[in-house]
């Protein structure tokens, strides 16, 4: 199946042009982004980074300061950290190693970028079906154990929003040549860090963990993520990748937030409180409709099943300036599924009220 990134979500400028609307007049519930502005201190720091001329020079290829800042956050050796141009670039290098280790399992429905990354290396992969119903329990044990050489895990899972237990992932590590764990949403998720497997990379050389700072900081345009894995593996990646994949502004933003624990904690508390409050409110509001069913989620998006096709609904919402995620690009989902990302209460109310005009 071709991965269509036009259906990835977050194509707000393209949709605004098609609709003849300003981006300011669109609610983008198709991309799972935090709806808060940058902390003022960080915003000013980025502005000063431009004014002081730091972008005149090439970034430090060793990422010495950045790796040390991340290592202190996770209490792990800096040699086991490799910053990247968002998580997507790092998936590409993880897929290279996957291609060298045999067949990959992609639990499905799941994030389509893994498939894109594997195709870069002509790697073999299969889809393994995840159950499409679950309880509100969190965390949950990872529910399948595919018979392949490589396993890709997303925690919390995209698009279902399920948070997998650390213990269930740890049990899998002895059964695969390579396990790639995408923790892009884990810092956003209340209680998520307790289920992280980053510390297990010190004991398991076959484990790669990939994080995104795009989600946490709300800087999708800057592109910043990092991989945590055995240092020898990351050294191989570094030797064959582009020379300067991470730009100076992204480095500076990460350095500041990683070193300022007060700012970091304040940001995380704000995000976690928002997800707790708005997640419960949106789920309850969606549950009042008779023809759709929101599934339990631990993070900042909710997967919804409809009794009938949602294609007309998606188009009608677009015309009203609301973008939701068309789930047809997810393997094992179809036109009866949509995903809605949490917004602030005002926008969430607008989404619910608009839905009332089209569904029961």
Features:
Aspartate Aminotransferase, domain 2; 360 residues; 7-stranded mixed beta sheet; Aspartate Aminotransferase, domain 1; 2 domains
Global mean pLDDT: 92
What CATH architecture of the largest domain would you give?
Answer: 3-Layer(aba) Sandwich
- Shape summary: globular
Total of helices: 12
Helix content: 25-40%
Question: Can you identify the CATH superfamily of the largest domain?
Answer: Type I PLP-dependent aspartate aminotransferase-like (Major domain)
Q: What's the total count of β strands?
A: 12
Percent of sequence in beta strands: 15-25%
Order of helices and strands: HEHHEHEHEEHEEHEHHHEEHEEH
- Largest sheet: number of strands, sense, barrel closure: 7 strands, mixed
Low-confidence stretches: 1-8
Helix and strand composition category: alpha/beta
Written description of the protein model:
The protein has 360 residues and is an alpha/beta fold. The protein folds into 2 domains: 5-38 and 263-355, Aspartate Aminotransferase, domain 1 (Alpha-Beta Complex), CATH 3.90.1150.10; 40-261, 3-Layer(aba) Sandwich (Aspartate Aminotransferase, domain 2). It contains 12 helices and 12 strands. The strands form 2 sheets. The chain has a 7-stranded mixed beta sheet, with helices on both faces.
Structure at a glance:
The protein has 360 residues and is of the alpha/beta class.
């Amino acid at each position: 199946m071709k991965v269509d990134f036009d259906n990835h979500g977050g194509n707000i400028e393209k949709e605004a042009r098609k609709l003849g609307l300003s981006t300011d007049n669109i609610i983008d519930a198709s991309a799972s982004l935090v709806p808060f502005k940058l902390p003022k201190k960080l915003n000013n720091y980025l502005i000063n980074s431009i004014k002081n001329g730091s972008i005149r020079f090439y970034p430090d290829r060793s990422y010495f300061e950045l790796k040390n800042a991340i290592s202190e956050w996770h209490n792990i050796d800096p040699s086991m950290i490799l910053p990247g141009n968002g998580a997507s670039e790092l998936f590409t290098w993880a897929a290279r190693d996957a291609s060298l280790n045999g067949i990959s399992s992609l639990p499905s429905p799941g994030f389509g970028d893994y498939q894109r990354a594997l195709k870069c290396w002509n790697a073999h992969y299969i889809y393994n079906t995840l159950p499409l119903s679950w309880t509100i329990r969190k965390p949950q044990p990872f529910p399948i154990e595919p018979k392949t050489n490589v396993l890709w895990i997303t925690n919390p899972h995209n698009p279902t929003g399920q948070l997998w237990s650390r213990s269930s992932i740890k049990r899998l590590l002895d059964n695969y040549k390579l396990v790639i764990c995408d923790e892009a949403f884990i810092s956003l998720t209340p209680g998520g860090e307790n289920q992280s497997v980053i510390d297990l990379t010190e004991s398991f050389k076959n484990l790669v963990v990939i994080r995104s700072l795009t989600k946490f900081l709300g800087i999708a345009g800057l592109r910043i993520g990092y991989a945590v894995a055995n240092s020898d593996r990351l050294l191989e990646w570094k030797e064959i990748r582009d020379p300067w994949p991470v730009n100076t502004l992204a480095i500076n933003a990460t350095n500041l937030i990683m070193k300022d624990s007060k700012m970091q904690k304040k940001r995380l508390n704000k995000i976690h409180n928002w997800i707790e409050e708005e997640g419960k409110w949106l789920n309850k509001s969606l549950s009042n409709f008779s023809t759709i069913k929101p599934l339990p989620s631990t993070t900042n998006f909710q997967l919804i099943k409809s009794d009938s096709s949602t294609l007309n609904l998606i188009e009608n919402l677009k015309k009203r300036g609301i973008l939701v995620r068309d789930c047809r690009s997810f393997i094992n989902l179809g036109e009866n599924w949509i995903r809605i990302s949490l917004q602030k209460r005002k926008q969430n109310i607008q989404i619910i009220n608009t839905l009332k005009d089209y569904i029961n």
